[in-house]
Structures are given as C-alpha cells and as structure tokens.
Design a protein that fits this description.
Helix content is about 35%, strand content about 20%. With about 950 residues, the chain is α/β, with parallel strands linked by helices.
Length: about 950
C-alpha cells in the first residue's frame, strides 16, 4: 500500500504482457500524463455507439478537461490502465474510489467505480476481460474490495464481461441503467474462468505459429545452403499447403522468384497477409526485421538466428529487447536460436525447421529446447519404426532454442485440446514456473499422457522468474503427483511414448508373458518383479512355435480376466516351419485386434524385420468410418479398462493395434510399468479426495497470533512456547521438553513430568542424533537420571553447550519426520519420511503439494521406500497410520490457511500402534511470497 509520500510514483510492476483470446498479445500499463495524445487518437477511432455506451450520451470528442482527468492519476484512489499494441491504445479501463454516498473518497473506503472503453476494431478479442483481471488486482493491492459499474442495458458485451468473470456479484436496474456490484476476492469460479481463458488464449497463440496460412522466410539466400535457404527448401519440399515467400534485403530488385517461390526484398513488399515469419538473419539485423514484420501485421516469429542469451550478458540483453520489441506489435516468438517447428497435418504440412525431411504424420507431440535434443528425438522415433519412415510419427514438433517467449507451458496449453495429438513427449532442460507447469500438467494428464525428461538445468537464460529452492528429486516427485510420466532418458521417453500412442492403458499390474524362449521369458518375469508389477509364470511356446501358435496363445492370454497386459517374447527360430517376421507380426496384430482392451508389447532379440513388420499399417491418422458409440474418435490412451470405461469395439482404428517392439525386456517392462502407474493415477484423479474440516482448528486465533508475531520483524523462527501455541491451534500437540541446565533442574523437571523420562542434548550438532549418544531413554528414577546427566556432560561438554532437556517418554513406535515449506516457485509442499538415515542419508522422502487431500495423505505415507516399517514389516506391530495421515492433513491446513507460515518441521514424530507423539517442532514465519497463480494472466517478465 502506498503512503502519502510515494502515492504518485509510477507503479512499474503493474506493467504486463498478456495473450488475448485470438492468440495475439497486448501490453497493459498504467496511463500517465504523457499519454494525452495517445488517448485523443484512441478516442477518435472509437465509434459513436461505443462512446454513447461509455458516457450514456453523445460524446464525439474529449475536452481538455476530460483528457487531463483521464491521464492524471494518483495510482491509489484513481487509476487508469491501457492496453496497447504497437505503442498505441486499443482499450482503457479506470477506477475511482468512492464512499458510501457515491462521491470520491480515499482509504479506508473500499469501493470503486470502474469503466471500460475498447476500440471497435479490437472488440471480441478478450481485451476487456484481460483489463478487468488486471484492474481488479490493482484495486485489491490498493485496499479496494468491491467494484461498481453502471452499464446501459443495450451494452450487452460489457455486461457479459462482468457477469462471465466469475466474481460474486449483485445486479440492480434503476433509472434505465444496470448497476453491477461485485466483490474482487478471487473465487473458485473466477479462477476457473481465468484459467480457461488462459488455456484458450495461449493455445490459440501457439496454433497461429504452427498452422499459419502464409509463411515468409527472411534471410533466404539465392545460393543453396545456408540456414535461411535450407529452411525455405524444407518448407517447400514438405509440400506446405499455404503461401510461401522468400525475403532477403540483398535480392536484386528485378528478382521475382527463387526456385518457384515468390521473392521480395522486404516483408513490407508482400501483397497480402503474412501469418508467420521465419527469421534467419544476423542478430544485429533482427530488430529491423521485427519492425517490418510488426508493421506488416505478421502474427508470429520463429527466430532461427543465434547470438542471444546463449552468448553471454550482451546477448541476454539483446534477447530481452527482442521479446519486448515483438510483443509491442502483438507477436509471439519461438526462439531465438531455435531449430524450428513442424506440423504434419495434411491441411498444413509445415516443416519450418532445419530437419531435412518431414517426419511421418502421427499422434505424438514433441517438444525440446535444444536442436540437438530435437534431432535425437526424431532420430529415435525413426529407428524405432516411427518418425521419418515408420508409422508412429509426430503431429507437431517444436524445438524452441532459448525459449525466450513460447515455452513448454504454452505447448501444453495447445496440445491439451489438439485433436491430432494423443501423447505429449517433452524434454525439459529446466522448468521456469513449476507451479504453473504442475497445474497445466495435471489437467492435461487427465486427458492424454504427458511424458517428460526433466533436466537439472536452471531457469532459461534471460528469464526473470523465481528460482525454486526445492531439490531436483522433490520437483520430480511433484511432477509425478500431477500425473506426469517422469522418465530419465530420451530412450525411456520414446519407449513410453510408443507404447502410450499405440496401446490402451492397462487395468492393473498383472502381466502375462508368452514366447518362444524360456530364458527371455524369465528375464521379462524378473524385470516385472523389479518394477513392482505382478507377472504370471511365463508360457514357453518353444522354438518350434508357429505364427498360429503365437496367435492362439496371445488370444487366450488377452481373454484371461486374470491379466491386464501381455508381453510377447520372440527370438529368431531356425527351420522351415519358423514364422517369418511379417507372418508373426500379422498373427500378433490380429489377436490383439480381436481383444482390444489390453496392451500388448513385444520383446524381440536380433529380429531385424519384426519391429518394422509390427508397425506396418496404413496410417496413424484417424480412420474414417470408425467411431466410439458417441461418434467421437477414441484415443488409445483413453481406452481405460472396463471398470472405468467401455472397451472400444473391435472396429477400432488400426493404429490402436500397432504393437510396439523393444530390443530388451527391461525397456519394455519399464515402459509398461509407467503405463500401469499412469493408468492408476488416472483412476485416482477421477476421485481426488477431499480436504477434511476439523472442528477444533482455531484459524482466526492463529491468524491473530501470526500477525502479532510478524509485527516484530520480517522473518523469525518462533520460540518453543510460541511454536507449541500456534501448532496447538491446529490440533497438533507437541510434548513439552523442559530445559535442564543443572542436574537439579533435570530432577525437578522429571518430578513434575513423572518417570520414566528421556534426557536429550538439543545442541545443533547433537539434535536428533541418537547414534552419537546424545539421547538417553527410559530413565526410571532420579539415580538413573543423574547418572545419564553426568555421562552426557563428560562426553560432550558443559550444559551450556549441550542444551539438555527432559521430556516424558513417548510410547514406542516408528520415528518419522513431517515438514512443510513454501517455495517461491513451486508453492507450499508437505514432505514425509522416516527420521534418521532413511531420510537424511538415502533421501527417502515423499512430497505433496498443498492443500493435501485425504487420499493424497494416505498415498504420501505409503510412497516412501521404507513404508513397510509402518505396516508390520517382519512381524512388527503396525503403527497408527490414520493418526499420521491426520497429522499431515493438519499441517497442510496450517500452511494453506496461513501462507506466512513458510516452514514447519516436526521431528521426531513417534508413531505408535495407537496414536502418535510429536517430540520436537519448529516454525518459521515470514511475509508470504506473491502468488502468481492467483493474479491476473501475464506472460513472463523480461
């Protein structure tokens, strides 16, 4: 909140770039005194009807007084924002704080009148909706809690902007005017509306780049070779369905064509619109190209040019300026330093990349940052019977280079409802915004598989994003919680992608194994056990097995209700009766197509032609005439087992029966295990659980206590009594530990607590280190207590160094640890593990995003590798895991209700057969980091 001394300072943090409904971009910023001429020019381009709707009367021009009022703001009680494209206004919004009587007021008045004006040429692009999100965020920052707007009944577009926003509102009609009043506190519905608009806008912005109606390659040379000319040739040779132009300022004035492609010296000379420009000129010439493209109305850029953030500080600044420059004209960028984009759709056929061949059309969407990784992905698909020559190809491919603007998040928004993509494969060298990525991934994974290799890199160079402080393994665990199929290598990425693109999801972990090699079958069996699957004993068909034998065995296995997936193993056979590759492939395909509800995989050894034969089908494109009962095509990844979804008919598209082949049992089984886990996640996501309510939680009291303590400073670790009091308000009782600076203090404490007691050293180097001897348990009387006190001081030093405490003995059980932290990038995270070496040495911790549901708490307890110790391992008594789950839910509620609680540690938490005991606790408070996901839609800042 600004004070009187700074209330007129320009609020630069209100500036933002936004994606509009049609996929274009605009700049939103505060209106200042320097905008008088822009405001007048903007108003002159607004129709008389729109002016009438704004002022309720004919208002042909603005007076000097009007211009002064609309450009002079204090940025507290009077605020104006403008949406700009090319530096010119396309829409404005303003609020004026009012009191209860409707007259101008200052704080503490918390209501304001709001009014919009959108240039007619830009109406219908979602500009007003974006401005409403931003002016509402500004108003909340300035202490305004409610907006009021008066609208003429005929102004249905503006009424719809308010009513569709999702805020809690009231509507009145009096004196011929509709008066709308709405609270500005975000609601579940307003956030849902905002995120749905975000998805549509960002998805369309990517579609404009991947399915352009016309493309100009800027920097295409006359001689073959060179980056620009190579891209031009690749687009032309792929049979691009739109209009293609070659542009180079060095072309002679009389050059009209370049190998049949219309040639121009500048994009300005092109007679007609250009949707996409591929820029392949030296970096110092790019600004002029961007200006020319912007003035011509180009919608987006793929910048192949290098010399940006990858080249050092000067290049990073050049990259930031490139993005700012392009967004000024409403353009989005893939790159710079990009490898390019590919769209195999028959209606597009765009290969605007450095890949010399167009990949075969298919159902897989591919994303990578570097060109080298992109080439590797396409190459692996090619070698595995996909990609360039095989059947399981790609729908779209993006290699984004420095990822300065369009990122993996944008591609997920596009692929979420892209009808041509069934599976998404991504190689992410870093995740710049984990909170948004996990939100988008969770929604997308509920519709189609999302397989990710996550690098351990930092944020993209040149980006101003919050860095996560979470370990790499924790981020990986959170991705899995969001439904992401997380793999470690490109090989595993392709292995999983081919299975998910070709086969239905398994109903469970039961696996049938059959083949003509007993040893290979046993290897597969062992691999299944290692991956946590439940394999049946392998069926050995012997090396004499014919194609008909394979067909019969596979058909029988698929019809068996006791298995959920089938792995077929095959080795070369010698003899005239042995089946050929094509014959065996057809036998397996026909059996799988007869019973289409279960996945089938093949492990083959040195069978050069079998993988290709298994992929030998007409196409992976949707087949006409085949449909689900509802008439919509059913993706293979959507073919859930009968328990959750009706099995597809036998007339399902041929592509759903393409059987993936693997050269090693371990690779096939690992891909199958990922599919099993993903299918289980899909079933669980359909019933996500709930966040329980607890009657004994004192949320208001906790808030008052936190506010009072934060008033003492910006960040602090609470003392023992404050920690116990705050946790107690959420039903978390911590066993009292009494400091004992002398043996007599220890005796008095034990007398008050009651024997038996524990004596502990709490010095940082000894805390929670029973292995060092700093903890003495089950001290039954004063003699034992005094002896233990003497031993501790003799071993480790003076009491002032040891900080000894006396604590009542807790019931025997399993020592665990519960933590919660608020990460500035990922958000609040709850973690759980066993105390001691399991978590400290082996890193055996599980993690969940807050708020944690009851189902997630149960899975959190069971996710660690040492979980069997909680459930009666080797005959031990099982502990009270329901009490542990309740504790996790209460900690989650605490940090969710109060984001000022930035860290909580409960250690150890001794979980007994009945109940649990929290023996140690610490809490840290600080002003909470800003929640980007609750604010208005914005593009990354540069």
């Amino acid at each position: 909140m600004q004070t009187a001394s700074d209330r007129h300072e320009y609020p630069a943090h209100w500036e933002a770039d936004v994606v509009l409904r049609d996929g274009g971009t605009a700049r939103i910023r505060p209106i200042t005194v320097d905008d008088a001429d822009r405001l007048v020019s903007f108003y002159e381009q607004v129709s008389d009807e729109s002016k009438y709707y704004r002022f309720f009367a004919p208002y042909p021009r603005l007076s000097a007084k009007d211009v002064h009022r609309f450009t002079h703001h204090d940025f507290v009680d009077r605020v104006g924002l403008a949406a700009t494209v090319g530096g010119e206004f396309i829409a404005t919004v303003r609020y004026d704080r009012i009191g209860a009587d409707g007259t101008p007021a200052s704080a503490p008045a918390d209501e304001a009148e709001v009014a919009f004006l959108v240039q007619d040429a830009h109406q219908g692009r979602g500009v007003a909706s974006a401005l409403l999100e931003h002016i509402a965020a500004v108003a909340r920052e300035r202490g305004i809690r409610r907006f009021a707007a008066e609208v003429l009944p005929a102004n249905t577009k503006m009424i719809k902007v308010f009513t569709d926003a999702g805020y809690t509102q009231k509507r009145h009609f009096e004196d011929g005017v509709v008066r709308l009043e709405f609270d500005l506190e975000p609601t579940d519905r307003s956030l849902a509306v905002q995120r749905a608009r975000e998805q549509r806008a960002e998805g369309r912005s990517v579609r404009r780049l991947l399915a352009p109606g016309s493309v100009a390659v800027i920097g295409a040379g006359r001689a073959p070779g060179g980056v620009g000319r190579s891209v031009l040739d690749n687009i032309r040779d792929a049979g691009y369905a739109g209009r293609l132009y070659a542009v180079n300022g060095a072309f002679p004035e009389d050059l009209k064509e370049l190998d049949g492609v219309p040639a121009h010296r500048s994009v300005r000379d092109i007679d007609g619109p250009v949707d996409l420009a591929v820029v392949a000129v030296p970096a110092d010439h790019v600004p002029q190209v961007v200006t020319e493209c912007g003035e011509h109305g180009v919608q987006g850029l793929v910048v192949i040019s290098a010399g940006y953030a990858e080249s050092g500080p000067e290049g990073r600044e050049r990259q930031r300026e490139l993005v700012r420059h392009a967004r000024t004209y409403g353009m989005r960028i893939i790159g710079p330093n990009a490898f390019g984009v590919i769209n195999t759709s028959e209606q597009v056929r765009l290969n605007a990349s450095l890949a010399p061949q167009m990949p075969r059309p298919g159902r897989i969407g591919l994303f990578a940052q570097s060109g080298a990784i992109g080439i590797a992905l396409l190459s692996r698909l090619h070698r595995r019977g996909g990609g360039v020559t095989g059947v399981t190809g790609v729908s779209t491919f993006v290699s984004s280079g420095n990822r300065a603007d369009v990122s993996g998040n944008d591609l997920i928004q596009y692929w979420y409802d892209d009808p041509d993509t069934d599976v998404v494969l991504m190689y992410l060298e870093s995740i710049g915004n984990p909170r948004k990525f996990t939100r988008l991934a969770r929604r997308t994974a509920a519709a189609k598989p999302l397989v990710v290799v996550q690098g351990a890199g930092s944020a993209p160079q040149g980006h101003a994003v919050r860095a996560t402080r979470l370990p790499h393994a924790t981020v990986s665990a959170l991705l899995r919680q969001a439904g992401v199929i997380r793999v470690d290598t490109i090989t595993e990425l392709v292995d999983a992608g081919l299975l998910l693109a070709r086969q239905p999801l398994p109903a469970g972990p039961r696996v049938a194994i059959l083949g003509n090699s007993e040893s290979l079958g046993l290897l597969t069996y062992d691999a299944c056990l290692a991956e946590g699957l439940r394999p049946q004993r392998p069926l050995d068909l012997t090396t004499e097995a014919s194609a008909a034998d394979f067909h019969t065995a596979l058909l029988h296995a698929l019809e068996d209700d006791s298995c959920d997936a089938v792995v077929v193993t095959a080795i070369p056979a010698i003899g005239e009766a042995s089946p050929g590759d094509a014959e065996l492939a057809e036998a397996l395909r026909s059996a799988a197509q007869a019973v289409p509800g279960k996945p089938v995989l093949v492990v083959h050894v040195e069978l050069g032609g079998l993988a290709q034969a298994l992929s030998a089908a007409a196409s992976t494109a949707p087949q006409t005439g085949s449909s689900t009962p509802s008439g919509a095509r059913l993706r293979p990844s959507q073919m859930l087992p009968p328990a959750t979804q009706t099995a597809p008919a036998a007339s399902a598209p041929a592509e759903s029966r393409l059987i993936p082949a693997y050269p090693a049992a371990e690779r096939a089984v690992r891909a199958l295990a990922e599919a099993v886990n993903y299918a289980q996640w899909r079933r669980d996501a359909a019933e996500p659980g709930r966040v329980p309510e607890y009657d004994d939680i004192d949320e208001k009291g906790a808030a008052e206590q936190i506010d009072g303590m934060l008033a003492r400073g910006q960040g602090l670790t609470l003392g023992t009594e404050e920690t116990h009091q705050l946790l107690g308000r959420y039903g978390i009782d911590v066993r009292r530990a009494v400091p004992a600076f002398t043996p007599q203090d220890a005796v008095r404490a034990a007398d008050g607590i009651g024997y038996p007691v524990a004596l502990k050293a709490t010095a940082p180097h000894l805390r929670h280190r029973a292995d060092l001897g700093g903890v003495r348990l089950d001290l039954a009387d004063e003699e034992q207590l005094r002896r233990a006190y003497t031993e501790l001081t003799e071993l480790f030093g003076e009491p002032a160094e040891l900080r000894p405490v006396v604590q009542a003995m807790a019931p025997r059980g399993v020592d665990t640890i519960v933590r919660a932290v608020i990460d500035p990038a990922a958000g609040a995270v709850v973690s759980f593990g066993l105390a001691g070496p399991a978590s400290q040495l082996l890193g055996d911790m599980a993690h969940r995003l807050v708020p944690v549901t009851d189902r997630e708490a149960a899975s959190l307890v069971r996710s660690i590798r040492t979980a069997p110790l909680l459930f009666g391992w080797r005959g031990s008594t099982p502990v009270d895991t329901p009490a542990l789950e309740e504790l996790l839910l209460r900690v989650s509620r605490l940090v969710d209700d109060h984001p000022e609680v930035v860290a909580v540690t409960l250690e150890p938490v001794v979980v007994a057969p009945r109940g649990l005991s929290v023996l140690g606790a610490s809490v840290r408070l600080a002003p909470p980091p800003a929640r980007d996901d609750l604010g208005p839609r914005t593009l990354p800042v540069y």
